[in-house]
Amino acid sequence: MVAMLLAMPVAAKDRQEAPRNAAVAKLSACRAITTDAERLACYDREIAAFDTAVRERKVAVIDQEDIRRTRRTLFGIALPAVKLFGDADESDAEVKEVTAVIKSTSQGEGGRIVFTLEDGAVWAQTDDYPVFYNVKPGHKVTLKRASFGSYFADFEKTVTVRAKRLR
Predict the structure, then answer these.
(1) Which InterPro entries does the protein's record reference (predicted)?
(2) Which of 1.10.8, 2.60.40, 1.10.287, 2.40.50 would CATH assign to domain 97-165?
């Protein structure tokens, strides 16, 4: 775990350094100690405190794969503009489309399709194109980000309609 923390990339000179968690800052401060024994004692003390914070769920350690998975599950949900995943350019890693398998379908308001994906996400058609009887559980759908916060649902073997995420 220490190797993972110490291998974190250093911010470029022209970028503002991201605020750190206090436990990580204390652990990183141990590097500045010049005496080997004191530096080792500092690392031992601070890694024990860090492990306790993780165990008590006061601190969470996530990797890039966790971030990618989380972004995918949040696709289609309107969130406030908060840098949840660090100071990296959020637009570089933004999910623009998701392909998933439909778990179930139902008929919503005005005969529009409501469909649930295997991951539990629920989406609803927002336009009036007749599609309900052509989409079945087990079919794939590709959800694509469109303009002005809207989305397209491109159903495998059928049509593309406008859609929104309900939950």
Answers:
(1) UCP023238
(2) 2.40.50
